[in-house]
Amino acid sequence: MIVRQAANVLEIMEFFAQTRKPATLAEIADHFGWPRSSTFNLLATLSEKGYLYEPRPRAGFYPTPRWLAMARMISEVEPLPTWTHTLIADLSAETGETASIVAPAGVMAVFIDVVESQAAIRYFATIGHRVPIHATASGRALLLQYSQEERDAVYRKIEFKQYGPSTPISIEAVELELRNSVSRGYCQSFADYSRDLAGAAIPLPIGDRRLSVVVAGPEFRIGPKVVEVAALIARTVDRLRPKAAA
Amino acid sequence: MIVRQAANVLEIMEFFAQTRKPATLAEIADHFGWPRSSTFNLLATLSEKGYLYEPRPRAGFYPTPRWLAMARMISEVEPLPTWTHTLIADLSAETGETASIVAPAGVMAVFIDVVESQAAIRYFATIGHRVPIHATASGRALLLQYSQEERDAVYRKIEFKQYGPSTPISIEAVELELRNSVSRGYCQSFADYSRDLAGAAIPLPIGDRRLSVVVAGPEFRIGPKVVEVAALIARTVDRLRPKAAA
DNA sequence: GGAAGATGTACATATGTGTGAATTTATCTG
DNA sequence: CAGATAAATTCACACATATGTACATCTTCC
Q: Which member of A65, A70, A73 has the closest CB to residue B112?
């Protein structure tokens, strides 16, 4: 069950992150199609807790810097080492595609850092974006780091759906693809989950954290050069990863 | 009416900002005294939206960097000029007390930047902290920047409460104190709102934004030196504020 | 290796909450 | 400066939702 008012808080914040300017109660209510009274309650709650204020009289609400302060505190802990961002920035620059760092979240994989392609047609992904762990290159690069028991536990929770023609729809299919990835030397996906989307990924263990790097873009661009892209990822990781670390 | 589940989202985030490590469903439920089932729903909602993930198997949930990405987007817009942070940093260093930048939020004043005193006994305030606009030095420094009509509008919404012996409990009392502040050259408060707390503040208009700076601490430390503190604030603002700006 | 305990998930139902309509307050217009 | 229009609040009730209970799954310890 999805907690509506919890989701609404996030929606409001995303709204402000997009518009980047104060908004009045009426504007917010209209934008979301929420009743004014409900919007009033929500805004009052956020204000009361010190997360919204009125920068200038009658110009509406805007988030306080408290969000930033809190987010900083949270992200200070085990931040990603700086070289991982360089990694995806370099990869994106060299390939012209979107590159990301990905982490596990149950049966899903979450994008925790993203550098977007500049191309007009591109893979549009943002930090926080989630994809099924078994049906994506990045996800399978995570699964490769699991023990057999851990993978089995994950499999039990997966609802196998036919997202696209090549989606693996059984445990065996996933395990087979994992074995193939090992012998191939990298993970790949051709529209296994998202239409027209292809990607190449490799595992990226950092300390005891299981992460992966992925480069993804439209099938027609990535397809012909998966091998090179995968090789490039491996080379770039080699170049940037501090030698001392695991 | 306060929207409970909206507040709960904030509580969870504050919880993570404090503990700074992943927490399991059970830990979170126990910490807040929430039922497991409800906690489950909330965590599921936050995860589904891409704001929570599981950094490592079975170690529980932790916020994704999406919070940070969003907060950055929001705060990029009209951030405070850098000199205002220097200002309160200097003030705090010189006085040994807590110094803050404050903005209006209806009948309240919100702390939008804070540098805390290092003293054992100190004014504990965080970004997002809210105080009544009429019963605090910082708040009155905001009111001084309003027109008479605007002030009247605010007064109509204030519930006058006797927070302490010296709290102004009428419009006249507030207006009188404002006039006194003007002739005195700065705003002050001696436990008008918080017990044992005293502060000195001056208006700090920046562009068309109405802000104020305040230095606050225990009455026994601030009391004897309000005049100097106020003078110091004025001098420091003079020194740091770019001459070109309004 | 198996039983006890802890943790995570599903679901029906009573209760707390979102909402539409009414009221108050602010803003615009001639 | 009315009188009209739009925005912000308040409130009582119907219904969506948070929760207690039951079940499943994982972990621990003997």
A: A65
Cα within 13 Å of Cα(A240), Cβ side: 20
Nucleic strand C under 7 Å from the C-beta of A35: yes
Residue that wins the pLDDT comparison between A208 and B140 = B140
- Give CA separation, A236 vs A79, A88, A194, A197, A242, in Å: 20, 9, 26, 23, 12
Identify the pLDDT of residue A55: 80
The answer to whether A70 contacts B17, with C-beta atoms less than 8 Å apart, is: yes
Question: Residue B138's pLDDT band (boundaries 50, 70, 90)?
Answer: very high
Q: Which residues of B touch A13 (CB under 8 A)?
A: 70, 74
The chain A residue lying nearest B132, using CA atoms, is A48
Per-residue model confidence (pLDDT) at position B244: 67
User: Do residues A16 and A53 both lie within one domain?
Assistant: yes
For residues B111 and B129, is the Cβ–Cβ distance under 8 A? yes
pLDDT at B36: 86
pLDDT band at B231 (very low <50, low <70, confident <90, very high): very high
Last residue of a domain, one of B74, B95, B115: B74
Note whether B55 and B22 are within 8 A (CB): yes
Overall domain count for chain A = 2
How is residue A194 written in tokens?
Answer: 């998202």
Residues B92 and B59 in one domain: no
Q: Name the residue closest to D10, CA to C1'.
A: A37
Residue A20, CB, less than 7 Å from strand C? Answer: no
Three state DSSP letters for A27-82: HHHHHHCCCHHHHHHHHHHHHHCCCEECCCCCCCEEECCHHHHHHHHHHHCCCCCH
Question: Does B232 have pLDDT greater than 90?
Answer: yes
Of residues A65, A70, A80, nearest to B113 (C-beta): A65
Q: With 70 as the cut, is the pLDDT of residue A246 above it?
A: no
Nearest CA in chain A to B6: A6
**Which residue, of B58, B74, B90, is where some domain finishes?**
B74
Tokens read off for B20: 């700074």
Residues from chain B that touch A77, judged by Cβ atoms under 8 A, are 20-21
**Do A157 and A192 share a domain, yes or no?**
yes
| Residues of chain A neighbouring B47 (CB-CB closer than 8 A) | 105-106, 108
Record: contact B45-A7, CB cut-off 8 A:
yes
Strand pairing category for A62-63 and A52-53: antiparallel
**pLDDT tens digits along B39-71:** 999 998 999 899 999 887 677 899 999 999 999
pLDDT above 90: residue B120: no
